[in-house]
Amino acid sequence: MTVEALATPEERLPNRTASAVAPARTPDAASGEAAPIGVRPLENGMIQITLPPNEEIAGAEARAAGAAVRALANGRRVPVVVVITGVLGVSVEARQVYVSSIAASAFALVGETPVDRVIAHYLLRSKTEKVPAQFFTSEAAAVEWLGQYASEH
Known about the structure:
Blueprint: E1 38-41, E2 47-50, E3 56-57, H1 59-73, E4 78-83, E5 89-90, H2 92-99, E6 104-110, H3 114-125, E7 133-136, H4 139-146
Parallel strand pairs: 2-4, 3-5, 4-6, 6-7
Antiparallel strand pairs: 1-2
């Protein structure tokens, strides 16, 4: 499922419709459109957000992802896995969306490279609430760590 499949019309990116967006597609060099952020529920009650590699995440994409997470969470606070592998950067506006999350009981950021770690720490430093968050190089380790927050609703 892509982010925009659950976004309201105001939260959708310009010139896109929910049915026209395919998950995890690469940017179209001719149009300059960014790949969508993937958002999907996991079997264990968690939600996974996958940021597109080789992209800088802007505020519009982050807001659409936030709307999708809220829709999947359905009023509950749930653990969220954020895969940031290969992301080039996160805008200040996108970082603010992360800071103001109301649906996450905990965040596990997953990346592979030193750049991923720097981006994760940029996001981890921004949390003003008492929402647990940690960086992992393994998605399995991240999901295992988030398991302790899975029953909090």
